[in-house]
Design a protein that fits this description.
413 residues; alpha/beta; Rossmann fold; six-stranded mixed β-sheet; four-stranded parallel β-sheet; globular
């Protein structure tokens, strides 16, 4: 905690002490970037402070996080992160790529990337002695909060659109959260959760609102640095990281993590970051392509519920993440997302639609010549296909039904 020195508004640049603000800039509502005491960190710690760590979770990076160690040993809180990185040669050959990695976030305790943010937010909630943590979610962020809160006995309230996939709602309930379904979309649930936090004094986890969410999500960038960049020292071109984008908080977190590593002197330059959005939910991509940071809301309509957002709450930083790293934004159709679910499944990776969108974006980038044979690429699968079985079943043919006889089986095979 001693290295957490304040916040800086991502819009106006005004800085605040840790005691002055909680969520967004009081001047203009801009998202806040957490400030670490980088000069002192550089003096006190070297690369081996990280690489010699024995704990394989996000807490191996505690010196670069703005919270004290939350303990929680022996609970799922300590099992977040350090997810595997696979090298699927079948997919690399199909795309004619020399180097391809897939980082599988479905291996987190609640089976999605969002556990990273929720773990850090719950740790912060315990630090400030919050009685209740509330969030709006289409499913994954809520499940992650419910899981992390349950692990340490923290009360949580989840506001989710009534259209959220049943498997995700089931997770919320099983983890013991107070679940309230809103007869509206995610953006309406988001606004209601902020009103509730103010009215009842709850601590709000909301993505793109609570600055600690980015700090949790940046740990994926720190892992990519350790698992790929420190291992693959002979790469001739910058690593290209592909991730799906909804609210914009994951891509902003990746960018923040890489920037922190550069500031520490542990990374020469950030990887190129590519955001992938559905054609039906493209507010950030639209702004990027227009060369502006003015995010205009859309009427989101996509099978990928985790990235279905009318008004991205972290859109400005999401635009910058691609622009400042020489990345880009790719738009894909829902049909491409469904095909990607099936394709990734054939190498043993079961992705939900939002996770598969990243691979669909890579495939389109290769087809359009944006990514070439010698560009090293990492695709982030942000969640498990078990989160949305209905979508998964649309991605594959139905299984045939036969009589329980060998004759019937012979006729089929």
């Amino acid at each position: 905690m001693g290295h957490f020195i304040g916040y800086r508004c991502s819009l106006c640049g005004v800085e605040y002490s840790p005691e002055q603000v909680i969520y967004t800039c009081p001047n203009d509502g801009g998202n806040l970037d957490v400030l670490l005491d980088i000069p002192n960190l550089r003096r006190e710690f070297g690369v081996t402070s990280i690489t010699s760590e024995v704990e394989n979770s996000i807490w191996r990076y505690i010196l670069l996080l703005p919270i004290p160690d939350p303990d929680g040993r022996g609970t799922p809180l300590r099992a977040v992160g350090w997810t595997p990185v696979f090298t699927p040669r079948l997919l690399a050959n199909e795309l004619d790529l020399e180097h391809l990695w897939v980082k599988d976030e479905s291996r987190n305790p609640s089976a999605s990337f969002k556990d990273r943010a929720s773990a850090v937010v719950v740790a912060r909630a315990r630090e400030v002695k919050a009685e209740v943590v509330v969030t709006a979610s289409t499913g994954n962020a809520g499940a992650a909060l419910a899981c992390m809160a349950a692990a340490v006995g923290q009360r949580s309230v989840i506001l989710a659109p009534r259209s959220a996939p049943p498997a995700k709602v089931a997770q919320l309930l099983v983890f013991g959260a107070k679940v309230i379904l809103v007869d509206g979309n995610y953006d309406q649930a988001f606004d209601l959760s902020i009103q509730a936090a103010r009215e009842f004094g709850w601590y709000c986890r909301n993505t793109g609102f609570n600055p600690f969410t980015v700090e949790g999500k940046k740990t994926a960038a720190l892992e990519i640095w350790e698992q790929v960049l420190l291992e693959e020292t002979e790469l001739k071109k910058p690593l290209c990281v592909f991730t799906s984008v909804g609210d914009g908080n994951i891509i902003s977190g990746l960018h923040k993590g890489f920037k922190d590593l550069v500031a520490m002197g542990w990374l020469d330059e950030s990887p190129r970051i590519f955001g992938v959005q559905s054609e039906g939910s493209a507010a950030v991509a639209n702004a990027f392509r227009a060369g502006t940071e003015e995010i205009q809301p859309v009427k989101a309509n996509t099978i990928a519920d985790s990235i279905s957002v009318d008004m991205p709450r972290d859109g400005v930083r999401a635009v910058r993440a691609a622009r400042e790293t020489n990345g880009s934004y790719i738009l894909v159709e829902d049909e491409d997302i469904l095909k990607a679910i099936s394709t990734m499944g054939k190498v043993g990776i079961f992705a939900e639609p939002a996770g598969a969108a990243a691979y669909a974006g890579l495939k389109k980038a290769v087809r359009e010549g944006i990514i070439t044979h010698d560009d090293p690429v990492l695709v982030l699968n942000t969640g498990s296909g078990l989160k949305d079985v209905h979508a998964a079943m649309q991605a594959v043919p139905e299984a045939p039904v036969i009589e329980p006889t060998l004759q019937a089986l012979k006729q089929l095979v």
